Request: fold
Amino acid sequence: MREFTIGKNDAGQRLDRWLGKALPLLPAPLAQKYIRLKRVKVNGKGANRDYRLCQGDLLQLYINDEFFDAPAEDNAFLSVFRPMLDVVYEDENIIVCNKRPGLLCHPDQGEYVATLITHIQAYLYQKKEWSPRWENAFTPALCNRIDRNTGGLVIAAKTAEALRILNNKIKDREISKFYLAAVVGKMSPPQGELKGFLLKDEAKNQVQVYHRPVPGGKTAVTHYKTLQVKGGLSLVECELLTGRTHQIRAQFAAAGHPLAGDGKYGRRSDNEKLDRKGQALWSYKLTFDFPTPAGALEYLKGKTLEVPRESIGFVEEYFGS
Reply:
C-alpha cells in the first residue's frame, strides 16, 4: 500500500485522471477497476472515479508495486545541461518564452530532449522551483504552442491552477494573439479579414482552405493589417480570432500571398528567389484581455507582452529597422 497527500497543484483533478498521471504504468481499465473495488481510498473511504481531489486529501493505493513509476535522476529535464531560454516574462505562476524557430514545443518521435518544454522544466528544476519528486502528478506544461519553424511567444504554467485557468482563457478566446508575417506580394485591400473553413489532412499534416462549410471543416478567422511593403514582400500583422492548425500559413497561401519561406504552403520559385527555408512568421504579442474573472491570475488582466520588432530576424532582413 502506498499513501499520497494531495497538494495544491493536484487539487481539483478527477480521481481517475490523477491516478493515470501518478501511475503511468497502470492501464486505464485496471485503474477504473481498482477504483470500483475500493482499492483506491480517499481519506480512508472508497470514492467515485469523478471525485474532485481536495488539497490535504490522503490517498491510499492498494496497488501492486510494479505499477509505480518512481522518478529517476536521468529524467529528460536533467539531461539538458544548460537550458537556453529567452524569457520575456516570469512570475510565481507562469513563464512566457520567446521560442526560436527550429525548436519543437513538445517531444516527438525524432526529438526527445531539445524541446521548449524540456528546457523550461530544466530551467525550473535548476532554480529549485520544481522537481518531479515534489509532485504526485503535476508537471510544468505549455498552455499554447506554435509550429516548429515559427518563432515567438509561448506560455507555460508553473502550477496546476494556472494551467487550468489559462487553458480555459485560451479556449474562450480571452487572450489576444498577434503575429508578424512576411508575405509574398501586396495585400489588397491592405487591411481586412481572411475567413474560411479549414479541413486537416492528418496523414500529410496539412490543411485545405474552403470558402463554404465542409464536413469536418473548422471555421478560421484572421484579421490582418499591412505595416510595410518592400522588395516584393509585405509585412503584415495578423490577429488570430480562432486558433487552427497552420491557420495563418494556409489562409494567406489560399489568398495568393504565401508566407516567405513556407515549404508546405508556399511556392518553390518564391522561396528559391528569397533563399529562405522556414516560414517568416512570429508570434510577437499577447494581451491578457480577461473579460471574465481569472481567479489567481486576475493580476494579469490587461497586461501585454511583446517581442521587439528589431529582434525578429526576418523583419530586420526584409524590411529593416
